[in-house]
Amino acid sequence: GVQTCALPISSPKTPPFPRGLKEHPLLVDRQPRYFLQYNPPHLDSPSPLVLLLHAGGQSMRKNFDGNSPATLRWIRLATQHHFILVAPNGVNPTTGDPYGDVQKWDDLRIEPGQSKADDVDFILTLLDDLSQHNSIDRHRIYVTGASNGGMMIYRLLVQHPERFASAAAFI
After folding, report:
1. Which three-class secondary structure string do you get for the chain?
2. Distance from C-alpha of 155 to C-alpha of 160, rounded to nearest angstrom
3. DSSP-derived pairing of the beta strands 31-38 and 84-88
4. I need a surface site. Which of 39, 67, 86, 93 has the fewest CB within 10 A?
């Protein structure tokens, strides 16, 4: 089930984010998960939504820590083109930590060190929760990601193609 939760989200590892980028917790089947959300100042109603999936060994925060100029451009693009930008966080496959910075997605590859978290349920629950709290155009939900995030996109599109207008995977 979907529940928002009051979990601690500040940590010594939390970098200063670009203005307007906010971190949120979400309970998914009684397990905490986390995501970053950017709503630009002028949104259409309903608004398109872009999900940005991080690479393996990375995190939602590392996408915006200043060391990734390409992903920092997403903030500018969201502002220019009036879409909501959301960067969910994977899970650390060794510790099970959903908040950390060395995360992976369960993209179904059979390799050592792969996550076994139910990331499909997380993403679908996240989309439902975002739609409840934002005016989102369900016909304009897009997903993009790199490496392990790109492989996760393939899994999402195979299992739930009806939820996404299009996708761009960078492997």
Report:
1. CEECCCCCCCCCCCCCCCCCEEEEEEEECCEEEEEEEECCCCCCCCEEEEEEECCCCECCCHHHCCCCHHHHHHHHHHHHHCCEEEEECCECCCCCCCCCCCEECCCCCCCCCCCCCCHHHHHHHHHHHHHHHCCEEEEEEEEEEECHHHHHHHHHHHHCHHHCCEEEEEC
2. 8
3. antiparallel
4. 67
Q: What are the strands of the beta sheet with 21-28, ordered from one edge?
A: 2-3, 21-28, 31-38, 84-88, 47-53, 136-146, 166-170
Contact 90, 54 (CB under 8 A): yes
pLDDT under 70: residue ranges of the chain: 1-17
**Phi, psi at 68, each rounded to 5°:** -125, 75
Q: What is the pTM of this model?
A: 0.89
Q: Is the CB of residue 127 less than 8 Å from the CB of residue 50? A: no
Q: How many CB atoms lie within 10 A of CB 56?
A: 23
Work out the widest C-alpha separation in the chain, in whole angstroms.
Answer: 44
Q: How far is Cα 106 from Cα 104, in angstroms, rounded to an integer? A: 7
Contact present, 109 and 159 (Cβ < 8 Å): no
Return the structure tokens found at 53: 């999936």
